[in-house]
Amino acid sequence: MKAIGLMIFDFDGTLVNTGKDLVNSVNHTLGKLSLPVLPGEKIISFVGDGVQKLMERSLGSFYPEYFDEAMQIFDSYYTEHLLDETKVYPGVEEVLRSFHNKRKVILTNKLYSFTVAIADALKLTNYFDEIIGADSRPYHKPDRRLVDPLLDSYGVPSEQTVVVGDGINDVLLAKNAGLISCAFLNGLGSRGELLFLQPDFVCESLPEMMDFFC
């Protein structure tokens, strides 16, 4: 088992399954603009780089003409509906309780306000020392400048810090910063893309992490 002191968790697709609410909010936005809606799996493939990229990709050839209006519609709708279908993944709280003595941070490309609203409602916030959203810092994953201050702040060396996530940005962040990568293969991200990056650890469910780290 690998000794760790700091755990950096992704949010969407790792701790919580936000997929249905994101799909519904994007398609609501497209419908309000009288644009063609998209298959859910297509929208899910756009997740991971923040809401602006999600909307840009979803608009496709209608970007940037409709972008500003689309962002306003999405923001308003998602604010009201971000908990309609969103649930904590099985085993997440078991994992967080198991690692109660480790420093834990949520690091996401999701906006801070959305992240906190969901984490609060699903009673996850108190498990974490800090929540960092897309608008919390001038950098986004996989930029290593996001994590260097965390290592200093918590006094944990890179070789004892793990990044846990379902997206390629999580694995790339770990590799860019010399951290341990742990890929969750059953989130919103592409299993094939994750495995191609050869993360240090992979898990089908988060409780498997309890066999990897101590």
From TrEMBL:
Annotated metabolic or biological route of this protein = Organic acid metabolism; glycolate biosynthesis; glycolate from 2-phosphoglycolate: step 1/1
Q: Name one GO cellular component term.
A: cytosol
Q: Which reaction does it catalyse?
A: 2-phosphoglycolate + H2O = glycolate + phosphate
Q: Which GO terms describe its molecular function?
A: phosphoglycolate phosphatase activity
Q: Name one Pfam family in it.
A: HAD_2
Q: Which domain of life is it from?
A: Bacteria
Write down the PROSITE patterns for this protein, in alphabetical order: COF_1 (PS01228)
Query: Which EC class does it fall in?
Result: hydrolase
Which GO terms of type biological process are on file? DNA repair
> Which SUPFAM superfamilies does the entry link to?
HAD-like
E.C. code: 3.1.3.18
InterPro entries attached to this UniProt entry: HAD-like_hydrolase_sf, HAD-like_sf, HAD-SF_hydro_IA, HAD_2, HAD_sf, PGP-like_dom2
PANTHER family per UniProt: PHOSPHOGLYCOLATE PHOSPHATASE (PTHR43434)
* Family as reported in the entry's similarity comment: Belongs to the HAD-like hydrolase superfamily. CbbY/CbbZ/Gph/YieH family.
NCBIfam families assigned to the protein according to its UniProt record, in alphabetical order: HAD-SF-IA-v1 (TIGR01549), HAD-SF-IA-v3 (TIGR01509)
Question: What name appears for this protein in its UniProt entry?
Answer: phosphoglycolate phosphatase
Q: Which organism is it from?
A: Syntrophus gentianae
